[in-house]
Protein 1
Amino acid sequence: MWKWDWLGMSSLKAEGTVKRAMNIMHNGLAILQQGRVLVTDRLHGHILSVLLDIPHVLLDNCHQKLSSFHNTWTRGLKNCRLADNAEDAARYVMELLDEYGDSLPPRLTAADIEEKL
């Protein structure tokens, strides 16, 4: 298990808004694709996991932003689970690991992401 937060990225210090944004995007994509299952409490983590076809667990918070988005737009995804607490998240991670085994989605760059229909 590996814990990471985008706020610690060195790419945040890049000069220029566009260069900084591109660095954050590329570094974020690389980090999201490191493991077999992602646990995230961030909406962008969920959206990128959907686009990259990464099995993931959404860990909702008291504002219920993730559960609202998930229930409205992505409820039918087979590679996503919604958890209310860390214990449920751990259980769902194990389910996804059992379901997907050692398979990893192919590594993609920003240019490779296609719209999901």
Protein 2
Amino acid sequence: MANIFLNSALLVIIHFSVSTFSVKSTTILTDQLALLAFKDNIIHDSENVLTTNWSASFPVCNWFGVSCGSKHRRVAALNLTGLQLVGTLPPHLGNLSFLSLLSVRYNRFHGRLKIDKD
């Protein structure tokens, strides 16, 4: 009986540990996928800034124009001012749940961003 209780307790602990780990390991992945979708919607990048700097091979927080918060290590700011990018703003940007600054001035984007007001 004690072994059954111990095994059940271990299973519960392992379950919560694995689910907590998977949530933490996929949160920055969500940001990465959103930014890669953004990159895919760029039709002109004259300086090749995104082409040469935004790659799944490197940590998102080290990408050009991307700043991450120190607490959650999620994308908190995206500053692409003056890069003369041309493209659309994909809805995937809405997945950047910690984004507090988006600066895309002096570029040519079209499309709409839906902003939820809580």
Protein 3
Amino acid sequence: MAKRGDPKTLVLNNFEELKFVDNIFCPQRGQLRLFRFHPFAKYMVSKLVCSVPVQQMDVNQQQQLLKQYKERCKIKQPHIFYTIESESQKTMKPGQFGQSEVFQIFVFFEYGQLTLHELTERRQAKRYLIPEPEVWCLIKGVMQAMHFFQNNNIPHGMITTKTIYFDEEYLLYRVYDQELIGGRWGNFIKYQQTKDPEIQVFLAPETKPFINSEASLLETAQINPFKVDVFAFGIVLLQCLTLFQAFENPLKWLDQFYSKNLMTFITQCIQPDPNKRQDWIGLYQLPLEPSQDQKINERNSLIQSHFENRGQKTFR
């Protein structure tokens, strides 16, 4: 009798073992160990997500912490990369006063390769706008993932064009459970400390007073992490739809090609006042499709003429 479930879940739940391939480094996810399923060809990576000196927790506490990670790995949603397992080990780590034993937890998860940034660069090279139906596929995919996260009180914390992926096998836009593989709130703190303009462009206005300050966003109750994520996604959409070109008023320029509903959605995302900006649950109340009575860009639009007399200044 055939097992029930979608093929992806069946593969992920019934692999026999993981075969180690190599150690790799990813700019977005750090140091990783690359594995492949056996007997399947699907690739996974593992990442160290927790390292605690053994003397700071007893065996029961270690097992309880591992259990929490294993439970978190069970969270599944099609637009979120699957995590399939977590494992622990004890190892010796050099320190100030010699070597000490540490308790470590690794998480195994799918390896996404094609980022939205790379996908947009392909379009930029051909000077073609993204067709509006594809834009809504992107929005709905990310929205479903983020709505799921918010319902589980999980912020993302690192939304950029380089942390949204296109799964060419399943034709889905997908994201990672960034909190699981990056540590709770760690991404917000990392944002605060960065001076990289490519990252700072995604920061919501309410976070900027805390950049390079001693105050942590973790201790700042007025910061709503879900609204911070919404703002970042609005900037992602602007970058993708303008193909990274810098405009004084990008919304006015994009209004020539896209529907009113799409412009309204982006405007709501980049609302500078967090009290007026919706979170993911609130955004679900907006129309997530073009207006029926409007002519929209439903095929690739050659835009070379719009850029011929412009410099190649970008805001990537």
